[in-house]
Design brief:
By secondary structure, this protein is mainly α. The chain is built from 3 helices and 4 strands; from the N terminus they run αββββαα. The chain has helices at 16-48, 98-143, 160-178; strands at 56-57, 62-69, 80-87, 90-91. A two-stranded antiparallel ribbon has the order 1-4. Strands 2-3 form a two-stranded antiparallel ribbon.
Length: 181
């Protein structure tokens, strides 16, 4: 008695046209969501924040004097001294606002989500494309009069009921061929 072999598939792109069209639909839906999100953020931030909400630092230092208290001044020493420091002040002459910051975050997350959707859709479409491929192949053999084995698909694949119905139809067709009236 032979042990039934498990069917493992290592090629995940089976029906390129179907799977890439499936991926395109997911991607277009995702890109439309990103566009709506970006537009929403733009109009929300345009109305909320006039001008820049965030600033850059000037490249040229400014000299300032800090007032430092002498903790234990000797007699005749001042209680305070002034220390010269160079600091970099904010530059308000640009338009870096929260939309610009959020835009970069949304684009980065969008690329990440697009990669995840691509991987998901390839695996999900594989569960649909495999059975469709087997159904097409079996029906083509049936049309050409070749021997047709029952269509076999894996447990997690889609279209289980369709395959059962087609297997019944194939069996009836084969039985009617073998037993002509």
């Amino acid at each position: 008695m032979t042990k039934p072999s498990k069917s493992f598939r290592f090629r995940y792109i089976i029906d390129k046209e179907f799977q890439f069209r499936f991926l395109l639909h997911y991607s277009l839906l995702f890109l439309a969501g990103v566009a709506v999100t970006l537009c929403f953020l733009y109009f929300l931030n345009k109305s909320k924040y006039d001008g820049g909400a965030v600033f850059r630092i000037n490249q040229d230092p400014q000299t300032v004097y800090w007032k430092v208290e002498n903790e234990d001044p000797a007699p005749g020493e001042p209680a305070f001294t002034y220390v010269k420091r160079e600091i970099y002040l904010p530059n308000y002459d640009h338009q870096l606002n929260t939309y610009t910051i959020q835009f970069d975050a949304v684009i980065t997350l969008s690329v990440l989500y697009l990669v995840l959707i691509t991987i998901f859709s390839i695996f999900k479409s594989h569960k649909m494309a495999g059975p469709i491929y087997n159904i097409k192949r079996s029906i083509d053999k049936l049309i050409h009069g070749d021997n047709v084995d029952p269509i076999k698909i894996r447990k997690g694949d889609e279209f289980q009921e369709l395959v059962q119905i087609l297997n019944k139809a194939i069996q009836q067709r084969l039985n009617s061929k073998d037993n002509p009236k």
